[in-house]
Each structure stands twice: as C-alpha cells, then as structure tokens.
Amino acid sequence: MASLQNSPSLHRTLFLNSFPQPHGHVHASPTFSCCTRRPSSFLVQASSAAASSSEDRPGRRQMLAVGLVFPSVSLLSQSSVSFAAETKKGFLSVLDKKDGYTFVYPFGWQEVAIEGQDKVFKDVIEPLESASVTVIPTSKEDIREFGSPQEIGETLIKKVLAPPSQKTKLIEATEREVDGKAYYTLEFVAKAPNYTRHALSIITIGNGKFYTLTTGANERRWEKMKDKLHTVVESFTVFNA
To answer: Which residue ranges run through the membrane (predicted)?
Structure first.
C-alpha cells in the first residue's frame, strides 16, 4: 500500500494549489496556461491580508460584485464552460470532457481562474463559499492504494487542504464506490484566527489523474449551506477521457 506521505510530488502539487481563495488581488492573464481553453481568462492571486480580514469586515453586502472592488476586471463568463441546462433546482452543471469529470454547483456562483486549479466557482459575496477542482497526474490506479479514507483524510487536511497555520480537524471520512471506482469523501474544519471554514472534499483516481474537489463555507453559515455543499461533492463523477 502506497502512502500519501511518500508521494512528495503529489503532495507538493496539491499543497500549492488547494487552499480556498477569499477575495484577493486579480490580474489579467490571458496567456495563463491552465486556462488556455477558456476565453477571457484571469488569474486570481490570494492575498493573505485579505483572507484574514475579509470575514471580520462589517457590511459584507457592500461587496455586491467584484467589480466594486476591481472595476476594471470582470469574472470569467459562464459561457466559457460547457454547461448543461439546470439539472437540479438551484444548480448548474459542469462537464469537462478533456479531463473527464462532471459536477454541479449552486446557481449564482461565478467562475474565476486561480493558478494551479482546473476549475473554481465561488460566491462573490461570501468568499469562503466555493468549489474548486484540482487535477494532477499520478501513477496510481485506485485511491485505495494510498490508504484508507481516515489515513488520507488526516494527511490531506493537515498538509494540503488548509494552510499550515490553520488548526484542522477531520470530522468524518467515508468511502463509496460508483461504477467500480472508489471515491473518498472528507468533512473537516479549518480554523483561522478570524474565521472557521467547514469544508467537504471528494477525492478519486482515474485516467491517470488524482482528482480533488473541495467545497465549503464559513462555519457560521454551515447549517444553511451544508445540503447544497453535500450535493456538490456527491455530484462529482469521473469518467473515461
């Protein structure tokens, strides 16, 4: 059985690209390689100062749109992604034929481009409410080769899915199988000085790739958002590409 701890390249790549992105600096980046298949792409770089203060700032509804903060920059157009019609009330679907996965996300979230992540959708008012997908190569053929859900979960939340400065706790780690493919679902919290993020991740392996989808919300909004976030992770499916 391989250990995730013994996969430095996998760990390093996930670590660099998996943190949630509260409001940050946005720069135009039309030539950014991970977004070449998307027109009008933009690079979003998180600001640690913004991340630490965004949840304490009163009047969050003042930020009704990113354009109020960055008037010269717009979010990625939803027309840049292959969408199905609204498949479930309140959700839209994403189909990535190149990398071989699909999932749904809440209606109203906007797509942004973040360095190192394949796709990111987020609420422009609640910065901790987002869904992001990371896809990296792997030589493994099954997620179970890395260990049990509990083993992988403990490693990922401490070293990959949250910044090292945050205190994390794994709440639950489960396994399910769909069409012969194993998926691990992780529920965890990550505590920063100014906020706590309650999150869900689903991980699997297919097409020679390690897939991670992570979604979450501020702990204070968890009860309101948890059903929607569970719908997001439960919809994530990998197919042959």
So the answer is: none
